[in-house]
Amino acid sequence: MKTKNISLIWAAGTILMYACQSSAPKGVNLPYPVTAKVDSVDTYFEQEVPDPYRWLEDDNSEQTASWVKAENEVTFAYLNNIDYREKIKNRLQELFNYERVSAPSTEGDYDYFRKNDGLQNQSVIYRRKKGTETEEVFLDPNTFSEDGTISIADGSFSQDGKLFSFLISEGGSDWRKGIVLDTETMEMVDDTLRYIKFSGLSWKGNEGFYYTQYEKPKSGAELSGVNTNGSVYFHKLGTKQASDQKVFSPKGEKIGAGGFVSQDDKYLMLSTFKGTSGNQLFVKPLNKNNSDIVTIVEDFENDHTFITTDGDKILVQTNLNAPNGKLVAIDINNPTSENWVDVIPETENVLNASTGGGYIFANYLVDAKTSIKQFTKTGKLIREVELPAIGTAIGFSGKENEKELYYTFTSFTYPPTIYKYNVEEGLSDLYIQPNIDFDASDYETKQVFYKSKDGTEVPMFITHKKGLELNGKNPTYLYAYGGFNISLRPSFSTSRIVWLENGGIYAQPNIRGGGEYGEKWHKAGTKMQKQNVFDDFIAAGEYLINEGYTSNDYLAIAGGSNGGLLIGATITQRPDLAKVAFPAVGVLDMLRYHKFTIGWAWASDYGTSEDSEEMFNYLKGYSPLHNIKAGTTYPATMVTTADHDDRVVPAHSFKFAATLQEYHVGDNPVLIRIETDAGHGAGTPVSKTIEQQADRFAFAWYNMGVIPEIAKKEL
Predict the structure, then answer these.
(1) What distances in angstroms separate CA 659 from CA 76, 484, 582, one per listed residue?
(2) What's the confidence (pLDDT) of residue 8?
(3) Among candidates 512, 450, 451, which has minimal Cα distance to 487?
(4) Three-state SS annotation for 208-271
């Protein structure tokens, strides 16, 4: 690919930015910034592709900052004119204001757990000494910053529980800093570790821990530069990071690596990736000095996840010759795949295994719903675990010697509830049930199956008030993801209550590209089959319209990250499908996505514009940025992104919004809402979450011409 880039000469500050385009965008009478264009052209396989808003990729320039400010001024001026927006925000605050407590974990002499009193921006880590009921604050991340934008991203304890290592994220960035605390004195131990990314901290006994460090980014490219040379290091307590030992480095600049220690402290498990699917697997024995690293899997063709050990064997979940997954035992003295022994064979349902209390728990997806079976480490079925209802259960993991494990059960109208599970008796007892201002008996959820464009049957969950009239006028929020083998399961959303209690419908299809039906379902939505994902989603919208749930004028479509790509592709392919669209932190420039941060790892799902002429043409054929057509009426659209998103860089959303504002005609607004001091989503303060969701619901109802019940109530 060749590039030419002849930038405009910036003059008189930001004046030029708003004056150099020949005419203002047509359409709704909003004072959109008139975004400058540059003569930037890329050549792929002798085809020239203009990229006139390339300058918006520079997240450090004053011009980009001025553009962001100007766009936000337009967006928030629009939102401020929706008179019931504040009522939505107040109702969300009421709903979020309940105590949320996690399951405990025992570390040393204490039980640790997280708790949020309701509206705290970040959950606080508490602890209580074993045998007592008195709890105390252990670590409060709300004290790290005034606005709650610094969060604890991960944490782990030394084997004796006397040291706690944790990672912090600043402003939502994927870059982490590592800190170690003495759990008795609460004093920092060692210097702060830096340049950690896509990593946990895994202790080897009490002497130190393993972590993944990426190459230090160049100055000014911290949030957009390509992440390269990820290697596993060992940090020995009491030493400087500069002296940390590089334990493992994959063979390739754009290959990521991770490592963690088995519970018995016998093995360091190492995994590498060059995409979101497929990984190499290695093991390093830790009970021998200067032991060699043993190769378990050398290629990247399949997924392999370490689960636990059983004596001299390691238990690994794999989809090698088992698209739905199975559990195998591997002897590291004879590790090649032909010598693997099936412990839990593949079934017709997708497997996700965990371990705790000396057992294996097989979490199966049955039409996107959870079924749990308990096995011994040799594969003997103990029982099928009885769950409280139909929905999603996560957890069933813990230390080998624990006799009680915890799991969280949830569904669309079932708030996340924690249960304590006795591993020997197989009995579940209620541990913590949230107290939310919500009556689940007023609502119902059904699962339907509809046909996509090619005849494939796709499942979809639909939730709404009981007795809802199917008159085609119900505001409907259609949400999906469709990528990277990620499964969307039934789950509860506090903010979603506001939509439902005001007569809205929530619909969640399990489209191809996800992992709901195993690797075949995933692969059917990747690379040259990515269009299946968009077809499945469009068919979901058409089903809801044809069955009378809603109509084009009352349908909102939403998705984030890869789901943002989904929404971008949907509105460019079917601008008539929905009235409102919310592409969030989306991958919207499919020709350049791999040139930023960790984007190169997504090529396993997408392919890249440099792979082949065929792949380039396919990507260009659906890339949302490159398929916006002049003179087209698009849905009322609010693009959302964040200035610290260093996973899907905000330039995707910036360029997409600028182009959409330029070409769109009609009365629908096209806005971009750019959050500051926030990232891709993880660690977002509660206050920001409430504001963002209030703006989405207000924007949706306002553009549908719907006055929600909440608008009629007194503040």
Answers:
(1) 20, 27, 16
(2) 35
(3) 512
(4) EEEEEECCCCCCCCCCCCCCCCCEEEEEECCCCHHHCEEEECCCCCCCEEEEEECCCCCEEEEE
Res 16: pLDDT? 32
Write the DSSP string, 80-139: HT-TTHHHHHHHHHHHH-S-EEPPPEEETTEEEEEEE-SS-SSPEEEEEETT---EEEEE
Other CB atoms within a 10 A radius of the CB of residue 77 amount to 12
Neighbours of 287 (CB within 10 A): 9
Report pLDDT digits (tens) over 571-594.
999 999 999 999 999 999 999 999
561 is catalytic: yes
From first CA to last CA, the distance across the chain in angstroms is 58
Q: What is the DSSP string of 47-59?
A: EEEE-TTGGGG-T
Give residues with Cβ within 8 angstroms of 173, minimum separation 6. Answer: 222, 223, 644, 646, 679
Would you say 675 and 640 are in contact if contact means Cβ atoms under 8 Å apart? yes
Going 690 to 671 to 592 to 62, the CA torsion angle's sign is negative
Q: Which stretch of DSSP H or E encloses residue 700?
A: helix 686-704
- What does the pLDDT look like over 486-530, one tens digit per residue? 999 999 999 999 999 999 999 999 999 999 999 999 999 999 999
Residue 616's CB is within 10 A of a number of other CB atoms, namely 21
d(CA 678, CA 660): 24
Q: Which of 462, 487, 481 is closest to 370 using CA atoms?
A: 487
CA distance 162 to 157: 7
Give dist(CA 12, CA 206) in Å, integer: 60
Structure tokens at 541: 């919208």
User: Strand, helix or coil at 382?
Assistant: strand
Q: At residue 403, does pLDDT exceed 60?
A: yes
What would the two tokens of residue 551 be?
């109509």
* Burial class for 712, CB neighbours closer than 10 Å (0-12, 13-18, 19+): exposed
Residues shown for the chain: 715
Q: What is the DSSP string of 500-540?
A: HHTT-EEEEE--TTSSTTHHHHHHTTSGGGTHHHHHHHHHH
Question: What pLDDT does 648 receive?
Answer: 75
DSSP per-residue letters across 578-611: -SEEEEES----TTTGGGSTTGGGGHHHH--TTT
Walk across the sheet containing 392-395 and list its strands. 392-395, 404-411, 414-422, 427-432
Instruction: Give the 3-state secondary structure of residue 650.
Output: coil
Give CA–CA dist 470/472, Å, rounded.
Answer: 6
State the Cα torsion 601-605-606-612 to the nearest 10°.
90
- The pLDDT value given to residue 18: 34
Band (625; pLDDT cuts 50, 70, 90): very high
Catalytic residue check, 680: yes
- The catalytic residue among 158, 411, 495, 561 is 561
Phi, psi of 191 (to 5 degrees): -80, 165
Q: Are 315 and 524 spatial neighbours (Cβ–Cβ below 8 Å)?
A: no
Q: Which two tokens stand for residue 258?
A: 């991770």
Give yes or no for residue 196 having a pLDDT over 50.
yes
Strand partners of residue 602: none
- CA-CA distance, 675 to 677, in Å (whole number)? 7
Phi-psi bin for 211: left (phi > 0), alpha (psi -120 to 50), beta?
A: beta
Single-letter code of the amino acid located at 401: N
CA dist., res. 376 & res. 359, Å (int): 5
Residue among 641, 646, 702, 704 nearest 673 (CA): 641
